């Protein structure tokens, strides 16, 4: 659990300057900056027309500069091989679980136009896909909500087969690989193109244990979506869970492949826009959150060149961390987070903070120097309906043979039962009860 035990971890120096030195091991080449816009820059003129030309111009200049400095290694041309389809390694039990072995090709949203054949081949193992009119309406609604605009289904490049909002409707389930060698970044629900000319693309990433994923973890994204639409000039083009690797050593952590699989089931069966990225969970060592965000930036902005604007130009996509108040408060604890990482996360990426019952996030923001310095890049999300489902309590209920119905998706409950997860946990009960209460 304690990241300071990681061999890679550097304790923050008390005399450190406020601007952190660039991380020498960062995967982001210097000539491809992290998208510089912050929520506070944009929300002041929320109803005014947005000058995308200026943004594109700045983006082009940036590209020109980097070409001048050295060969522009970072401009990755948009071709079919940029957009790898997902791994479709399926275990037998997973096939049985999804109820059907009929194959029906499932096309990746971002891949669809570029790489249909390639994708078809890789997705032979997808399950039979059933969609109804209700499904299609739901997806149109979701995507409308993401941009706050009304667009027709066909303009989105979204296939009906990607819809998965009715828990028990059988459909293809996308799987993440179980080894790094087979790993591919999931893009099947990443919007390829912005729908609103007045907005900038945003991907949100939730890091955590997700042992197991609950309805609170799913609600986090929906609350973030509402806040982003209401208070910023960003359009969410994708949402990802990044479960920690087994090296996090937190008690109650089920093996990473189970946690990834439960997140996948939850996303695929209850959402039409959320995805799970197994990269962090597959790392041999514990990976600091700053590096996880670098990985997302690398996959989306460096490898894929960003997201297309309405006019078809590629623009950089902002990546933000989505975290609960407790996680944010851990940033104030000594020797947990490195100061330079906090500057990187809060300054360069930004954070959507979901308030948690019993924790005063706004006061914390005010009292924490680094957080306060980057406050314009932080958005606090209020919970209008308080939800405090905790994975710790779920594990305790399972251990005591109590019901966990309606606290997490049925598909996840079934998975836990089938794999006998958490029932024999040896997590100290005192710790379970004390945790975050
Ligand atoms: N009740 C809550 N309110 C707001 N955010 C939450 C809440 N519970 C968890 N989160 C957030 O969800 C993310 C994933 O957290 P995590 O996997 O630790 O969930 P958890 O339920 O707190 O787990 P555990 O009980 O095992 O500590 C973190 O950003 C965390 O802050
Ligand atoms: O990057 C760091 O230094 C760091 C320090 C403490 C916690 N984190 C991350 O915060 C998340 C905490 O998850 P959890 O389940 O312990 O609430 C998890 O994704 C950790 O990797 C990250």
From TrEMBL:
Residues 57-74 have a biased composition (Basic residues). Residues 1-32, 57-141 are annotated as: Disordered. Pfam families: CTP_transf_like. Keywords: ATP-binding, NAD, Nucleotide-binding, Nucleotidyltransferase, Nucleus, Phosphoprotein, Pyridine nucleotide biosynthesis, Transferase. It is found in: Nucleus. InterPro entries: Cyt_trans-like, Euk_NMN_adenylyltrnsfrase, NadD/NMNAT, NMNAT_euk, Rossmann-like_a/b/a_fold. Its EC number is 2.7.7.1, 2.7.7.18. It catalyses: beta-nicotinamide D-ribonucleotide + ATP + H(+) = diphosphate + NAD(+); nicotinate beta-D-ribonucleotide + ATP + H(+) = deamido-NAD(+) + diphosphate. GO terms for cellular component: nucleus. One of its GO terms (biological process) is NAD+ biosynthetic process. Residues 125-140 have a biased composition (Low complexity). GO terms for molecular function: ATP binding; nicotinamide-nucleotide adenylyltransferase activity; nicotinate-nucleotide adenylyltransferase activity. Residues 205-395 form the Cytidyltransferase-like domain. It comes from the Eukaryota. Residues 10-24 have a biased composition (Pro residues). NCBIfam families: nicotinate (nicotinamide) nucleotide adenylyltransferase. Belongs to the eukaryotic NMN adenylyltransferase family. Catalyzes the formation of NAD(+) from nicotinamide mononucleotide (NMN) and ATP. Can also use the deamidated form; nicotinic acid mononucleotide (NaMN) as substrate to form deamido-NAD(+) (NaAD). Key enzyme in both de novo and salvage pathways for NAD(+) biosynthesis. Predominantly acts in the salvage pathways via NMN. This is Nicotinamide-nucleotide adenylyltransferase. It comes from Henningerozyma blattae (strain ATCC 34711 / CBS 6284 / DSM 70876 / NBRC 10599 / NRRL Y-10934 / UCD 77-7) (Yeast).
